[in-house]
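Quick question about two entries, pasted in order.
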Amino acid sequence: MQEALLITLLQVGIIALVFRPLESLAPAERWENRRLTRIDQLYTLLMLFGLFPLFSYLILAPFGQWLGVAADANVEPSFNIKHWVPYLERHPLLLLVVYYLLYDFVYYWMHRLQHLIPWWWALHSMHHSQRQMSCWTNDRGSYLDGVLQSFILAGVGVLMGVDIEDFAWLTLASELVQNFSHTNVRFGFGPLLDKLLVDPKFHRLHHMVLDPARPLLHNCNFGQVLPVWDIVFGTALYGEPPRPTGVSDPVVDADNGRGLIAMQWYTLKRFWGAVRRPSGWRPGDVSFDAHDYAPISTATPAAAASVAPPVTPDAAR
């Protein structure tokens, strides 16, 4: 636990002392004040010191031992990648590379499902509601969504047979890239490195407000750390200028006027309005009815009438 606490303190320190100053030096957008970012700072501290991914791994590890994918004091693992490919056990660095490729691949498809399945979007949409996306925004999200994500990603670690210490450091590296990719800066890694790592310019386009003239443009750039999956599966978008972030659905955009508890509560109301209806399981972009939170396909006239663009921050000067 001491190591986990040190990792968390290191991450918070890098966010506050490196990424935050960069937002003042080269912002993608200039804001008169940073009021909307304050709630994200609270989310970051609660999420990181709650250590969702790490605790999920610790909870899942006993099940891994029972299934024979993780070792304990008495049983040698028989159902993980090191058992299937003994070569990897003798080359731990290569094992970590293979593990992270699988981890990031699973994240990519999980993230696409978060946008595609209406009940999951009901949870994930709170993350996208932020109009002032900053270095603190990565951990803004529904706690139910956080639990689902953590168990899925920690499950990958268990199946791979990765040691808990390695899992913790890989999580830190992954989280730091995500913290940086949400940072409000107008620069990226350049035309070569931006094909190898997700940077702020790439991820900002994922958070763009829906453009009625190009309604599918925002369905892009789902990668967590590696943009290769977006490139391979045709969802990568490069070369667009910076765009305002947030959502066009006023029901979701209302999160910006709420505190942490209210945000969680209204996100659960959207989730319940979607998960109990067939339309909540039907893939596609949706908005939510303001009264009963039923998902409404954005392709329908009713949805088009109910969606109004949110107030967006001033563009960078």
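Here is the second entry:
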Amino acid sequence: MKKKTMLLGAMSLAAVTFLSACSTGSENQGSNDISDSSIVEDGSSMSSMEDMSGMAHDDSGDIPAGLQEANNPTYQVGDTVTITEGHMEGMEGAEAKIIGAFDTIAYEISYDPTDGGPREENHKWVIQEEISNVGEEVLEPGAEVTVEANHMAGMEGAIAVIEAAEETTVYMIDYQPTTGGETVKNHKWVTDSELSAE
């Protein structure tokens, strides 16, 4: 009887040790997987990248088809200007360089991002050439449109409501945020009224 009890105790202890080792191993494995998947090539964590996903602007410099260069822009390509109105943190007061100037219709829009992010209210700007199936007429406030621009995550393909329209020159700019960090390249778009000469 004593032998059976000792054998049973030894087997129980071995089983607990084995299960404990398996459990620890799988937990560690899981945390390694999470850790590995949360690191991107530049060493940033995925969570911090996701926190900034809404702010990740398209910096390709691609120009929409049909967009015409401005005939007589207030600011020329290569000019250095100051941004007087900020669409995002670190923009207002920043020094910027004009990369391109184009005559078009700029729209302020509100939309629900296609990636499930929070609704964007009064986003400035998308332009006539970045809206699906639209002619040359100025769209009225309240009109529903499909956005083709991909300035921000979840913008392309979103259904938007026009809040305001402005026939103007829009500029593509490079600027150094006043909050520090890397230079923002090919930001689309700012208007004449949002810039001042240095």
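Reply: Residues 2-37 form the longest helix (36 residues). Helices lie at 2-37, 46-51. Hope that helps.
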